[in-house]
Design brief:
Length: 277
């Protein structure tokens, strides 16, 4: 398969029978196909021994020097509400320009947070999330975060912001870094018990990356956005945190209407970050 084709494969529409057979042989499990949860680049299912297996496909050019065993490496983290990692397997297909990886983890029965759930999350839920993100930020790693499989860097952040706002004159200096999950979407958080799922992209990142991702994805529900601001106020209030919020807003601005909350938030941030003339 040509590299361009490999990069555009959507696992939500692919037939994966042979992949599942390979996973079952490698990990010594049977997958319950009726429990499949499909995403664009990953798919998961329960096993016959009461665990969960997540299978990911990634184009080879998206696999950097640190590898792509993020779920396995996350087993070293402490003080975080997350599934326990148990086993893994990886392989390449000579006829495909991509690699496959399967990770078996503890089964978390709590479902992902749905849009209607966000405004009803308990104080205990928020306390667990806050404590987990604080504990994560205190730990160090040689890994570098790869949100959307792109290694985070000043150049990547600058490119995204300038594409959305070519006239912007802000200084994209990322002075503070901390360990981050790097894919903290609502789909990767569970309720009523709070667990953080899908650790393939974690690593060092500009401060506030996770909080910014959660904030920007909450702007359509103002009370939820305000709760995120409150819980992660130190990160989001830092200059680096504001740049991360603008970074995630800028990813969406080209695709939203003029009056969209994400555009208003981006303009507010630009006003705070651009130098006085």
């Amino acid at each position: 398969m040509p590299t361009s084709a490999a990069a555009t494969v959507d696992l939500r529409t692919e037939s994966l029978g042979s992949v599942f057979d390979r996973v079952e042989r490698s990990l010594g499990v049977k997958l319950d196909r009726s429990t499949e949860v499909r995403k664009r680049r990953s798919i998961g299912a329960r096993t016959d021994r009461g665990t969960w297996v997540r299978v990911e496909r990634r184009p080879r050019e998206r696999i950097g020097g640190q590898g792509w065993n993020g779920v396995e490496c996350a087993a070293t983290l402490r003080g975080i509400a997350m599934p326990q990692w148990l086993a893994g397997a990886a392989w390449t297909d000579p006829e495909d320009a991509a690699m496959w990886r399967a990770d078996e983890t503890e089964l978390i029965s709590a479902p992902p947070v749905k849009p209607a759930d966000r405004a009803e999350l308990s104080d205990t839920w928020w306390a667990t999330l806050t404590a987990s993100l604080d504990a994560l930020a205190e730990q160090t790693t040689t890994r570098v975060a790869t949100p959307d499989t792109d290694t985070i860097s000043r150049s990547v952040v600058t490119e995204v912001i300038q594409k959305a706002f070519p006239e912007a004159t802000i200084d994209v200096s990322l002075d503070e870094w901390a360990t981050a999950h790097a894919d903290l979407s609502w789909a990767n958080l569970t309720t009523p018990e709070c667990y953080i799922l899908d650790w393939e992209d974690w690593g060092m990142a500009p401060r506030g990356l996770d909080a910014a991702r959660l904030l920007v994805s909450s702007l359509d529900v103002p009370e939820v956005a305000e709760r995120v601001r409150h819980e992660r106020r130190d990160d989001l209030g830092s200059r680096t945190g504001k740049l991360m919020s603008l970074f995630y807003c800028s990813k969406l601005v080209p695709y939203v209407d003029e009056g969209a909350p994400v555009r208003a938030e981006a303009l507010r941030l630009l006003g705070e970050l651009e130098p006085l003339r």
